[in-house]
Amino acid sequence: RVAQRRLGSVDEMARVVQRFEVSLKAFLLDGDKALFLKERDTGLWELPGGRIDVGEEAHAHSEILARELAEELGVGMRVHFGDATVSWTRAHPEGGPWVFLIARVGRLVAGTPVLSDEHDGFVWASLETWRDLRFPPQSGYVDGVSALWRIARQP
User: Fold this and answer.
1) Which residues contact 31 (CB under 8 A, 6 or more apart)?
2) Among residues 109, 149, 137, which one has the least CA distance to residue 45?
3) Is residue 132 a contact partner of residue 45, using CB atoms and an 8 Å limit?
């Protein structure tokens, strides 16, 4: 949206800045497969991770992502992350502000997912099968995950 305002004798078009919630996601690989979680409330697939909580704004993103992974996958999951990130947006599942997602590629070191109540399924999908999953509409999930696969396949 654009709002018009009068400054002195000059009309200026002022833009309204979008506000987002921010979510940190993990593209977890075990061999040649990536982990996807099924949202209990929507039945759609997503990557593990979650939003930055109030009070965590100054915390390192790696700490926040570790907290989210422990909440969603259990404390036994151990992951080694690289530095590359990919970002995209999605409509908020409950109609709130849009969500800005930032994902990092990680490799599973140890552990098996133990899902929280937020999710009711998980799948380790390959490069050939992940597109069969249904992702949130009004989102850049497909483009984001495609970019993550390209990063993951680099030597």
Assistant:
1) none
2) 137
3) no
The two tokens of residue 90 are 């999605």
Structural tokens at position 93:
């599942």
For position 18, what pLDDT does the model report? 86
What is the structure's pLDDT at 85? 96
- Residue 35 bridge partners (DSSP): 124
Task: Give the number of C-alpha atoms closer than 13 A to the C-alpha of residue 52, restricted to the C-beta side.
Answer: 18
Tokens of 98: 């849009």
Residue 67 host element (H or E):
helix 61-73
Side chain identity, residue 70: A
Answer yes or no: are the C-beta atoms of 61 and 83 closer than 8 Å. no
pLDDT digits (tens, 9 = 90+) for 8-41: 555 566 778 888 999 999 999 999 999 999 999 9
**Residue 12 host element (H or E):** strand 10-15
Taking the complete model, does pTM exceed 0.85, yes or no? yes
Is the separation of the CB atoms in 87 and 9 below 8 Å? no
Phi and psi at residue 6, to the nearest 5°: -105, 120
